[in-house]
Amino acid sequence: xxxxxxxKEIRSILQQFQNGYIERDIERLDEFMSLFVQDDDIELIxxxxxxxxxxxxxxxxxxxxxIIQSDxxxxxxxEIDVAGARIRAKGDVAWVTTTGSLQQTDTFDKxxxxxxxxxxxxxxxxSKDADERLVEVSHFGVRRLRExxxxxxxxxxxxxxxxxAKEDTQWRFHTIHWSMPVD
Length: 183
What we know:
Layout: H1 4-23, H2 29-32, E1 43-45, E2 57-59, H3 61-74, E3 77-80, E4 86-90, E5 93-103, H4 107-124, H5 130-150, E6 155-167, E7 170-179
Parallel strand pairs: 1-7
Antiparallel strand pairs: 1-2, 3-5, 4-5, 5-6, 6-7
Helix pairs in contact: 4-5
């Protein structure tokens, strides 16, 4: 169990992360990125990740900055259970687990061209055989259709886990993993 000061510091960082996803101010994205270790070893593993270096597995500051910007522009409203987060620490490393939800907004139509481009890239990926590509693009398309049919206001539950490292006197995210239950 982490001491109460450490828990309070880390909960504050988690709240700042939540605030960034509420405000979605692209002009403040560089400031938001100060919540992360400034090192290319950092990772953000998205809900669709299945393999390192592939779709939704982001490594390095620039890659993570790009996906966060995309989240802010195209994703729904993120609500993280900051108060209910379980926080543990040992020395200069801490880990956090909590739940949250992603409320679907009207950004789906705005993101549709991006989804279609992703499907096109999947179909053109010659590193996989034709059957694998068809399964991948079909699964992706059905998932997007399911999201669309749930409609605006639907809340998708998720779990988020993170590892933070203390640099000098500041806790910063090193690894974040978002996951959603299979439906």
